[in-house]
Amino acid sequence: MKLSVIIPAFNEEKRLARCLTSVRAALKANARPNLETEIIVADNNSTDATAAIAREHGARVVFEPVNQIARARNAGAGVATGDWFLFFDADSSLPAGAVADLLKAVESGRVAGGGSTLVFDKAPFWLRGVLVLGNLAARFTHLTAGCFIFCPATAFRELGGFSHELFAAEDAQFGWSLRRWARDRGMDTVVLHRHPPVTSSRKLELYSKREILTLFGRFLLLPKRTLRNQAALAFFYDGRR
Known about the structure:
10 strands; single chain; 5-stranded mixed β-sheet; alpha/beta
């Protein structure tokens, strides 16, 4: 088996080194004779040292000029040579236990991928409460968050990857498609929860409450139009890091 870890990255020079260090350590901790691995960073038109840092840490770098996370994920997958893909976020840290749980799920032969619950590196009390509820909902609905999504390479290709029509929530949409793909083959998807990845809560520091509530309101009122409109999603694309 070969596992390709694919990391989309847009101006992530502040956090990418820590992410890649954690990924390498997690893969090393789970090394075994029958497991090959590779790490791919999809540089999504960064204007900082993202690509250079990725190369310094031994990752293969592929460039995606269109600033869209779905395209970055797909660009990374396009050069990946693994039997299984793990899409992981550049502002997150990967526990060795999460990789162990992923491999156990794969080796069961009953799982066609899925996601994981998450924890924030820093978060106020109210956000920790929201995250607890969100994680419970993810486990119940098999919702996949972009920080950690794994799937067979065959499923990814048959499903056509992440939707280029969406500038956000492409992770959830892919997860729902993956679950249908799994059911058609008598399999299931899972949301791992024993060793959740640690992801950044930086957006709470970089964006005002007004900006966050405005985005939330747009999504509630016009979800499809908002998710397909990059200009309405500055929260993800304006480059604040």
